[in-house]
UniProtKB/TrEMBL annotation:
PROSITE patterns: OMPR_PHOB (PS51755), RESPONSE_REGULATORY (PS50110). It comes from the Bacteria. It comes from Frondihabitans sucicola. This is DNA-binding response regulator. GO terms for molecular function: DNA binding. It holds the Pfam family Response_reg. The lineage of its organism: Bacteria, Bacillati, Actinomycetota, Actinomycetes, Micrococcales. Residues 124-226 bind DNA. Residues 124-226 form the OmpR/PhoB-type domain. Keywords: DNA-binding, Phosphoprotein.
Length: 227
């Protein structure tokens, strides 16, 4: 599996190249944003890891450039810890965000999570989690227990569930969810989001007060965590 690492810090490049190489990954490197795009086009990596503060093209510009033609998972690894930087990167199309300094075990776990999502990501008409089955073709949600039965969702609940479940493992920011479900004029109406997510959890989670699948990322957004 190929990983493209884009960072202008040669020490980080060397450390990641050694560690990821020892873990069985084929590592490609780039020291600036323009080179990162070129390497991505040339090698079609399975995961892209990039810093935000790079020369020539910054990380946001690289993400936007990649998203113009590729769905490759993008993991931002940056020293910028502000919520605004994280939101900007995620809204631009990044799939996850790790701040420097980072624990290597956590970084490897994030990479594994992203690559599992890639394996599971072909456009499947149905997804199962817990005792719930979501059929996108039939537009239905049902219980898979012996008792069975359909779960009625409102159109808004369905759109939120669809957005989360079709992006397994990916953090979806509150602003992105509000804009896609309610429209551009509602990007700050976080009360709507909390209300509908609470309703979804009551209908779908085994323990709604301690969600297992529809998880809150505090201050940032929500994530669907598959089995």
């Amino acid at each position: 599996m190929k990983i493209l690492i884009a960072d202008d810090d040669p020490q980080i490049i060397r450390a990641l190249k050694v560690t990821l190489g020892a873990s069985g990954y084929d590592v490609i490197t780039a020291a600036d944003g323009a080179s990162a795009l070129g390497e991505a086009i040339a090698h079609h990596p399975d995961v892209v890891m990039l810093d935000l503060g790079m020369p020539k093209l910054n990380g946001i510009e690289v993400i936007e450039g990649l998203r113009g033609w590729s769905h490759v998972p993008i993991l931002v690894v940056s020293g910028r810890t502000g919520a605004a930087d994280k939101v900007d990167a995620l809204d631009a199309g990044a799939d996850d965000y790790v701040t420097k300094p980072f624990a290597m075990d956590e970084l490897l776990a994030r990479i594994r999570a992203l690559t599992r999502r890639v394996v599971a990501a072909p456009d499947s008409p149905a997804v199962r989690f817990g005792d719930v089955a979501v059929d996108f073709a039939a537009h239905t949600v049902t219980r898979t227990t012996a008792e069975g039965g359909s779960i009625r969702l409102t159109p808004t609940e369905w759109r939120l569930l669809e957005l989360l479940v079709q992006n397994p493992g990916k953090l979806i920011t509150r602003e992105a969810m509000l804009t896609q479900v309610w429209g551009q004029g509602h990007s700050r109406d976080t009360g709507y989001l909390r209300l509908y997510l609470a309703q979804l959890r009551k209908k779908l989670e085994p323990v709604p007060a301690s969600p297992r699948y529809l998880v809150t990322e505090q201050g940032m957004g929500y994530r669907f965590v598959p089995e």
